[in-house]
Specification:
With 254 residues, this protein is an alpha+beta fold. It has four helices and eleven strands.
């Protein structure tokens, strides 16, 4: 839990802290694990030396995200209820690539997100926005032989969080990718172009390099849109190399 006093910090205070860090930074392309304007990063980043772990032991205690093989319908978050979810139907498509531009096939890709009102289906999310009985906000798929993934979903809304007074997160979708076991899990966030909250958000701004931040923003792609059905966005995920997609700690719930 954050110190209640921390939530009284103004947006102007947070923005000034972010500017001071950015002005002093040079050549950083990865998010800072300890970014003071993101108040709870003080509790989230490692404080002790890393140790090797036994992957098989860890997997005994790792979460299970499904008890069956991945079904095609799990990639369509608009058909998981008893009716149509509310909001802007959209499709996001892209490729999972390595640092040499080669396709990463048969990769498990999971997403989770807020609904069109900015509310998660989670007991810790109690802000006064409606839940949608026809939208869980969770989906998964497997990349094809060319490394492509595709999800049909509802465009999420921004939502408030308790980092500081009047704090709002830009609209985003969480992506999770697995290698051959749970210890290879990587998590990132995809944002939408032109969001006015970018400059105010300490999670997005914890990456001090603008070009690196830009790699987290999808592109509107009219070829992904469908006539009278959905808008479309395109976003590649690059796992390695200097142009890799920025990843975060898997404990980050925001």
């Amino acid at each position: 839990m954050l110190d209640p006093a921390a939530t009284q910090d103004s947006q102007e205070t947070i923005s000034a802290e972010m500017k001071a860090i950015h002005d002093a930074a040079s050549g950083e392309t990865q998010p800072r694990v300890n970014f003071p304007p993101y108040r709870s990063s003080a509790l989230r980043h490692p404080t002790k030396d890393m140790h090797h772990a036994d992957p098989e032991t860890i997997e005994l205690w790792s979460p299970a995200f499904g008890h069956r093989d991945v079904h095609t319908l799990e990639a369509d978050l608009t058909v998981q209820g008893n009716g149509e979810p509310i909001g802007e139907r959209m499709k996001v498509r892209g490729r999972v690539l390595d640092g040499e531009g080669r396709a990463v096939r048969n990769q498990l890709v999971e997403i989770w997100q807020a609904n069109a009102a900015g509310r998660y289906v989670h007991k810790r999310d109690q802000h006064p926005a409606p839940l949608d009985p026809n939208f869980t906000g969770v989906g998964r798929t497997i990349t094809d032989d060319q490394g492509f993934y595709e999800f049909t979903t509802i465009k999420p809304a921004p939502y408030p969080w308790k980092n500081h007074h009047n704090a709002w997160r830009p609209a985003h979708i969480h992506f999770s990718l697995f290698g051959t076991d749970f210890t290879q899990r990587m998590i990132t966030q995809m944002y939408f172009p032109g969001d006015p909250l970018f400059s105010l958000d300490p999670i997005y701004q914890s990456i001090t390099d603008q070009k690196a931040r830009d790699r987290l923003v999808a592109t509107y792609d009219h070829s992904v849109s469908e006539h009278e059905w959905n808008t479309g966005y395109y976003w590649d995920i690059v796992l390695t190399g200097s142009n890799r997609t920025l990843m975060e700690a898997d404990t980050d719930a925001h």
